[in-house]
Every structure is written in structure tokens, then in C-alpha cells.
């Protein structure tokens, strides 16, 4: 059985600069019911996340559309790497190789006192491939992604998200890109911290799409 058998969200990269949400729907509608198309094209090369109602449809879409030629662009279609089975990495504690580091970093604040770097890494892996995570005494943490796209997705989708520690303590965390202004030296610690007030949670509106639409589609 595929290690992605329960994953419904796929990553789509190497898109043309003038790509539209409708175009992405046209590419993937035939593989199953699409519940969300999240196109990110404001800065840098455009990319998108497409979520299906059924994980099997997501697998079919990856299998059929990875490498597909779209208007001269060879699409990159894959599952977000953070969903694959892999050892949990983090700050080195004397066992195994040191954690891989990346410049694609976010700052997370509002962590509960019992939140560990393992909890933080597991939470942020919803956005993609996390290569490093650590937490600090003041209830903040740092997370580094291997890919720029995953970092941007984390800021957009996991800001004001519900975080749960391994001891069951819940808070709502803020996630923002590390611009370098906060890169001060801090001593790492995993000791209990003071509790922090949870941040109010707000939902980002999600646009939903159904395959049951009657219109011509030029891309097969």
C-alpha cells in the first residue's frame, strides 16, 4: 500500500505565470471531486495545492499529471513531502547526524508550556517537509522547511491554527515568516515555560470546487 494512501492534498509546481484557478481545475477535474484549489502566484513562480475529497483520486492525479506538458510547461505534481514517512528530526541531542538546516524559516508563537519540538514539527508538517524545529522558554519556536513553497503555505494556512501538545494542552499559535529581524541569539531549552493566552482563531475562506460542471475543457 502506498505511504500516501490517506493524503488528499497534492502539490502542483512549474506552472505558467498566467495560470488561473479555473485552469488548474481543468487539469485535475477528471480524477475526482476537488474540494479546494489554493493557487499562490503573488510572488515568485506560481504553485498550487489541490485537495480531493478522496485520497485515491489524489494518487491518480499525481500518477497521471506529474510531468504532464501544459502549454510548454512540464508540470511537477507530487504529494507534499512532509506527509511521507520519515524519521522525526530536530535539534541534535548526540544521536545520529545533525539536523539539516534551511533558510526557509518561520517563527511560531503562542505555544503551550508542554509543547515540545517534536510536537511543533508534527504540527507544521501539515504544510510540507520540515527539516528542523526547536522551541524556546518564551513560548515561541522556529521551524525550517526544505522548500520555499511549503514555508509560504505554512504562513498562510497554519497561522491561528489549533496546536495540541503531547500532553494534551491546547493553544492557538501564530505563524509568520522569519524576515531576519528576529534572528537574535537565544539559548535553547525544553523546560516548562510560562503559560500564554491563546490567540483568537480565524478561518480563512476556502473556495470549493466540484467536478460536476458542464463546460468545455481543452486540456486532456
UniProtKB/TrEMBL annotation:
GO terms for biological process, alphabetical = mRNA processing; RNA splicing
Q: Where is the composition biased (Basic and acidic residues)?
A: 174-185
Question: What Gene3D superfamilies does this protein map onto?
Answer: 3.30.70.330
Q: Name one GO molecular function term.
A: mRNA binding
Q: Which UniProt keywords apply?
A: mRNA processing, mRNA splicing, Nucleus, Repeat, RNA-binding
**GO terms under cellular component:** cytoplasm; nucleus
PROSITE patterns in the cross-refs: RRM
Give me the stretches of Low complexity compositional bias: 80-101
Keyword Zinc listed: no
Q: Where in the cell is it found?
A: Nucleus
The RRM domain extends over: 8-82, 104-175
What ranges does the record list as Basic residues composition bias?
Answer: 186-196, 205-220
Task: Identify the domain of life.
Answer: Eukaryota
**Where are the annotated segments for Disordered?**
80-102, 174-220
Q: Which family does it belong to?
A: Belongs to the splicing factor SR family.
* PANTHER family, per the entry: RNA RECOGNITION MOTIF RRM DOMAIN CONTAINING PROTEIN, SERINE_ARGININE (SR)-TYPE SHUTTLING MRNA BINDING PROTEIN NPL3
User: What is the protein's given name?
Assistant: RRM domain-containing protein
Organism whose genome encodes this protein: Varroa destructor
